[in-house]
Design goal:
Elements (H helix, E strand, L loop, with lengths): L5 H24 L6 H25 L4 H16 L16
């Protein structure tokens, strides 16, 4: 198997990071639509790819893994955060 040159590797690495953040936003914005299941599957695929990219870059280049780990963490936060108004949220402070 031929080795991957540095330029192609960086483009692939950047593409995985871009796919991770984009799929997180798409998964969040598709909530309640007919495309929600597809967007969630795309996001889960990107999670696997970002996890692999983090492990591979940790082994290959000591400082490069942090970019992938930060993208992984940010994409998880984007998917988890509720961007709806507080009045529409299921949980509010008035319930105490």
């Amino acid at each position: 198997m031929p080795a991957l040159d540095a330029t192609a590797g960086l483009w692939l690495f950047g593409g995985v990071q871009l796919l991770g953040m984009t799929s997180a936003w798409i998964a969040r914005l598709s909530e309640g639509s007919v495309h929600q299941a597809f967007c969630q599957r795309l996001f889960f695929l990107s999670l696997v790819l970002m996890g692999l990219a983090t492990m591979l870059t940790a082994a290959a280049r000591p400082g490069l893994w942090m970019t992938s780990a930060v993208t992984l963490a940010l994409s998880l936060l984007v998917v988890i955060c509720d961007f709806r108004h507080a009045s529409r949220s299921a949980w509010t402070l008035s319930e105490f």
